[in-house]
Amino acid sequence: MKRLVLVSSLTALLVSCGPAFERPMVTGPLAASDSRVAQGERVFYENCHACHPHGGRGIGKGVADRPLPAFAVRLQVRHGLGEMPAFSEEEIDAEEMDALLAYLSELRMVWAAETP
User: What single DSSP character describes residue 59?
Assistant: First the structure.
């Protein structure tokens, strides 16, 4: 339990740090030919887009400009943090979670390439 609290605190610290997200969306193409990225994009738009529109800042913080490690994203998605709700295995299963992480990685690479 203490470990979960420590990891959650570290995740909160990492999420709150970093540059402000100024652009509302990623405009470049994603690797849609990669089926995992395509599946992850679907999972993102079904579960995350309402708060993180196009990976940007909406109700929630931007996700394209925050290079969190996959384990931290997975922890935050599963357990929630702050205003972010938790998503159970029934809502986002393990395969969908892996695809979502692949999509977020691709989204961040495209965002970084577009950032002057």
Answer: S
Q: Model pTM?
A: 0.72
pLDDT digits (tens, 9 = 90+) for 15-48: 444 444 444 455 455 656 689 999 999 999 999 9
The type of residue at 16 is S
Contact in structure between 96 and 102 (CB atoms under 8 Å): no
| Contact indicator for 84, 108 with CB cutoff of 8 Å | no
Residue type, 110: V
How would DSSP label each residue in 94-116?
HHHHHHHHHHHHHHHHHHHHH--
Would you tell me how many other CB atoms lie within 10 Å of the CB of residue 87?
Answer: 19
